Amino acid sequence: MSDVVRCYFSFRSPYSWLAFYRLSRIKDQLPVGFEFVPCFPPDNSEKVSRKDLNKVSYISKDVRRFTEAYGLELKWPEPFDTDWLLPHAAYLYADEQGRGVDFANAAYAARFSKGLDIGCEDNLRAIAAECGLDPDDLIRCANDENYRQRVLEGMARSRRDRMFGVPFFIYNEQTYWGNDRLDWLIRDIYRDLKRPVPDLAEDPMARPY
Predict the structure, then answer these.
(1) Any idea what the Cα angle at residue 40 is, between residues 36 and 41, rounded to 5°?
(2) Do 11 and 88 meet the contact criterion of CB atoms below 8 Å apart?
(3) How far apart are CA 81 and CA 93, in angstroms?
(4) Where are the domains of the chain?
(5) Is residue 193 classed as helix, strand or coil in its secondary structure?
(6) By CB count within 10 A, which of 106, 146, 168, 175 is most buried?
(7) CATH architecture type of domain 4-192
(8) How many CA atoms lie within 13 A of 57 on its CB side?
(9) What pTM, to 2 d.p., does this model score?
(10) Is the pLDDT of residue 55 over 60?
(11) What is the rounded CA–CA span in Å between residue 190 and residue 26?
């Protein structure tokens, strides 16, 4: 039985933001470790997804529904896309300093609650300072070829893991896609540890926590 959950996330995705926010609030209460792997889609998939106006309209309303329920502010960034390699490489540096989760939450808040471009170095410097990180070191590492290569290696690993969208979780060879699948991930963790979980045949709305 694995005691680590691999979590693929992207600063581009609002659903990844929602899942990361929820998971960061409960992960220390779960008896497993978490490996967070940053990634982002290639240019061609970004362009295709933005062309479907019905889907874009739905996502906009759906994300607002979640943020209002979670008590989060929502302000869509404009432009929506940016230099994705920079913030994801910055995350790897922050994680090495023991501030990965703090940095990710702050970066998500800057992007989706303040509408800021997190591919901008000045905005990343402000996020770094907010998290107690050295802004100059963070920017230096975010531009360092070693950190950038590690992001690309994580993306190659995601393809080997057959990841097709974020957030994407892997636990005991089982996969879970989306913010709304966290309940199933937690159910399976508890079940493997012989902890009781709600009987969905009796109450299909019951949550495991």
Answers:
(1) 140
(2) yes
(3) 22
(4) 4-192
(5) coil
(6) 168
(7) 3-Layer(aba) Sandwich (3.40)
(8) 3
(9) 0.91
(10) yes
(11) 13
